[in-house]
Records
---
Amino acid sequence: MAEQRKNKRFDLKLPFELTRKGSQTTSKTGETKNMSSGGVLFTTDVTIDVGDAIEYMITLPTSSNSGGLVRLKCVGKVTRFHPEGMESPIRPSHAVAATLERYKFIRK
């Protein structure tokens, strides 16, 4: 079966933080699995419904001499949710695909 994605995906394992789900403020961490210019696939222990609006932060790698943290603050919508089983018996892990509709770079 041929790949039919609009945007090329890059396998990037980066720290991920879900900061808002719909109208609920949350702070749950996870990790990206892959990203494109139009979206992201990430893991989380939060159950999210397809169609939910979310805000999330992705921490980007920086050079050791830059001295700062660069994060990408994103707004999107959940397009897929897949329960993945257990990463550990204490913390389940789910795969979530979301669009990347707006973003802003945040430097600390």
Note: The chain has no helices and eight strands.
---
Amino acid sequence: MSTEYLRLTDVHAFYGESHILHGMDLVVNSGECVSLLGRNGAGRTTTLRAILGLTGRRTGSIMVNGREAIDLAPHQIAQLGVGYCPEERGIYASLSCEENLLLPPRVGSGGMSLDELYAMFPNLAERRASQGSRLSGGEQQMLAMARILRTGARLLLLDEISEGLAPVIVQKLGEIIRALKAKGYTIVLVEQNFRFAAPLADRMYIVEHGQVAAEISREELGSKQELLKQYLGV
């Protein structure tokens, strides 16, 4: 039996007066990679931000590893073992690659050591003394992912990590996600790049107008092409 790591039930989220999520319902089991697919503005990034308490008002239920998180502050949610890799990456330009890695606090046991991270991200080992502003887009993306792995987070929320990157870097990121899955991490992947996300995900939720419009397992991909075209234009 799979163990639930994350469950959203009837989650509504707001930015000021703007009502973005309209009753999100989804489940992510421990050790799964689940992808949120949809067009821009569908509510996928807001779903990740709502999990972490980074939107405005939220209602409904957000269970993280058996704990209700809807009323917790973002730092308390992070302490439940949640790591967030935002689309904008959030690299400190004036700090070195290694200083960026060492900056976040530990939120749980089992965080990767610097040696383990450099083994997984050899590009970062080569650039450990380089300023954040001197890293390429791909190196910055790797640094943003490596930084949350050091904290001990076990639930990884990854937002558009392949966007704008060279195919060879995207391929490397896919290999890293597979390696993390093999280590037992639970991953929620927001992606516009269907061809990147589909082979990695155990299940996919299609998000439309702040709700889940459809759920597709990896095994159903072949039979759900018309549905994918309808919602994604794939």
Note: The first helix runs from residue 44 to 51.
